[in-house]
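Task card 7
Instruction: Convert sequence to structure tokens.
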Amino acid sequence: MRFKQLSSRKGTEEIDKAYRKFEQRITNMADSVRPSEFNEERPGRIRLREAKSSSQPQNGSKGKAVVYVVDDDASVREALGSLIRSAGLEVETFASAQEFLARSRADVPSCLVLDVQLPGLSGLDLQHELAKADVQIPIIFLTGHGDIPTSVRAIKAGALEFLTKPFNDEDLLNAIQQGIARDHRAPKRREELATHKFGAIVGTSTALQNVLNQVEVVAPTESTVLLLGETGTGKELIARAILNVSSRSNRPFVKLNCAAIPSGLLESELFGHEKGAFTGAVAQKVGRFELAHGGTLFLDEVGDIPLELQPKLLRVLQEQEFERLGSTRTIRVDVRLIAATNRDLAQMATEKQFRTDLYFRLNVFPIRIPPLRERVGDIPLLVRYYVDNYSQRMNKRIDVVPEETMAELCRYSWPGNIRELQNLIERSVIMTPGDVLQIQLNDLQQSNPISSTMAGTLEDVERQRILEALREAGAVIGGRHGAAVRLGLKRTTLLSKMQRLGIARNTNYAPTTEKEGSNVLPQPIKR
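Output:
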């Protein structure tokens, strides 16, 4: 509630005085931002000037992005401060909205982490007043009172993210980085896409670049995207990459793991319910589609949605309308859907385990995320990225990754993909006492023995993977189902690699198999 409304109701001089002071602080915040310091790209909106020589914003004592935290709980402020600093960012904390406004010079931070329930002026009211004064700050709301009416107000008013305590540290850091990128994103060269435009996606392999090229094509559209890939390949990161370069980048991003919600509650999570709609429905609940109105909804593990719920999902995708449980009122929404699954939806549709019409509706623009074993060249980059990340968080300095260790990591098949690699590096950083990374490679061999055919140099690994792809593709190099597509390569690139690695087009790459006394001969490679 605004001070002005309180003043007219109570008629007290003290509240009138507080309101005038608050209005003056808001005015000072807007006035203190000189026009020369801001980008005039959007007339009438205050927007921090994009950095010219660095991808980092130019505020902060050392050129780092500055994040403000406003929370009345001292322990929460301390924990958030430590977490944000561990990500290499500057942070300032405030116990109330009034303290935030009373700062000696009302600099505009790169991102504002704001508690909803604050003494005096609430977080939502502060957001409203900042918006009125055209002070544009990416805001991430935190609340211990988790539900829905508050989050709806915050997101509809333009909040970047709404997290319920206790929240996941990675979710908060990802949201902060997204907020910083929103107002400081500078044009990047095409060859810098993996490092800058697509945030935390690390890698330069052809397979990954092929995915990012598809992201760049589909992101500006409103089309549904289906992300296909094994568990741990980074499907959510790709979903966020699509968001970041879409026209909805400054609107809500709502996510739901369909496999993590009991089937009996999934309908309520997606579409909401009215009070009394079923036993235990003691209050109205707004569903994820309604929360994502105007923005993007990411449905992870969409293959786990029960058959009986799929017609309602199909309807909202086609008509952009639905009814809450227990209500007859039709609600219209504007939502862009990104779905992800590690299951074969086409096969499930054939076996009547997934609706064919829903599969075709989801499969508008499929993107296959390659497993880590198809991105061997990215493994050293990922290892270095995670070593730097975790050593910084743990106040360690690890400068060296032994060559033999890196070679073993590149030879491992990584059934758990990037998530498995990330967990291994975090555990190894914890266990490393000095500046040389120590990894217990026996753990890898026990959990998934390294094939003898993979033992060799990185060149051997690449050669083996090409041979495997040729076997899987039935000796076909080009075309939609050829080995080149499986490897994320152009046909000409694959042919060049085959020549370099000594894989002739008539190589007998397939193993000879005895079947009832006769030999099954390998097929010649087809162009």
